[in-house]
Amino acid sequence: MDYLIKNAVAVASTGFSDARDLRIRGGYITELGNALAPTQEDPETVIDASGCVVWPGLVNTHHHLAQSIMKGVPEGLNQDLGGWLSSVPYRFWPKVTPELMYHAARLGLYELIRSGATTCADHHYLYHSTTSSELEDAVWQAAEELGIRMVLCRGSATETGSHEGMIEHKIEPESIDQIIDRLDTTRKKHHQAGPDAMKKLVVAPTSLIHSSSPEGLKAQAQWARENKLRMHSHLLEVDFDEIQAHKRYGQSAIDYAESCGWLGKDVWYAHLVHSDAHAIERLAATQTGIAHCPTSNCRLGSGIAPVILMAEAGVPISLGVDGSASAESGSMLQELNLTWLI
Ligand SMILES: [Zn+2]
Fold it and tell me: pLDDT band at 163, cuts 50/70/90?
């Protein structure tokens, strides 16, 4: 945990300073400067960073690591979100064994680390009534072995909705009691509190509108807040969320989320592509964040999230690579570059 990094071309944090060297003690940067000398009394690993730029670890706020083994599936090409979900992730979901999940997680995490990420929020949603906890354990294990910070966003569905993979394989969804029981088991086994945590658990129903009930959402929000866990889901990736929210609940998707306790500074959503002025105002007022996933949104033709308007309104913005079955990549540099381009 103790390093002296020397001779970098530049050291970037919130800006660039003149410093070329930095010292790390017990996982923390303790000194920035030039011509820092190795300490005699306390040996540290010296790294020559000549020709390199040193920058902070990037934080990926939305992924589906299981999809790292579902790249380039021909049936998913030229499809929109609904068609692609049926043709790729939902079709293969029932075939993902714990062993496959472990290798998919390692592959996805390697790609992230190679692009400078040190934290990964994985929206892991492979749960049903008889699911094995080994699938989830495989993700925790892969992250632990590679030394990346893991934020496991525990997905769930209490309704099958239009999930053809579940219907075809006769998979029953979980009950809300089952979800909370299993969440609590994971919390006790893995979740660490505090800023130095390497493992965190997040409550993350897979979709607010299509596969959860208002009662289930309220119960999960209450449980999450009692246990000081953050909350995450998909929202407004395509305009179908807005249409369904009006049809099922007689209000906009963002108002429905708020009515279920699902806006707040402890909540962030993937996509939010179809946010109108009212949605942006509510997100900003409640400090609800976005995981902006431009590659996946472009690939599936979902659109471009209005992140410039969100930034002006004060919505917390972060970047996510989304699953590799839609992004065809798991690179934070790709997301940074595309965010800048569009
Ligand atoms: Zn996603």
Answer: low
Tell me the CA–centroid distance for residue 234 and ligand 1, in Å: 6
- Report domain extents, the chain: 3-54, 58-341
264 CA → ligand 1 middle, Å:
20
For residue 120, report the distance from its CA to the centre of ligand 1, in Å: 13
Residues around ligand 1, an ion, CB closer than 5 A: 270, 322
Q: How far is the CA of 181 from the centre of ligand 1 (A)?
A: 24
Domain covering 58-341: architecture? Alpha-Beta Barrel (3.20)
Band the pLDDT of 172: cuts 50, 70, 90: confident
Distance 307 CA to ligand 1 centre (A): 17
Residue 40: its pLDDT value, please? Answer: 79
Does residue 161 carry a pLDDT above 70?
A: no
Residue 144 near residue 175 (C-beta atoms within 8 A) = no
Distance of CA 77 to the CA centre of its chain: 23
pLDDT at 189: 96
Distance 64 CA to ligand 1 centre (A): 6
User: Which of the listed CATH numbers 3.20.20.140, 2.30.40.10, 3.30.200.20, 3.40.605.10 matches domain 3-54?
Assistant: 2.30.40.10
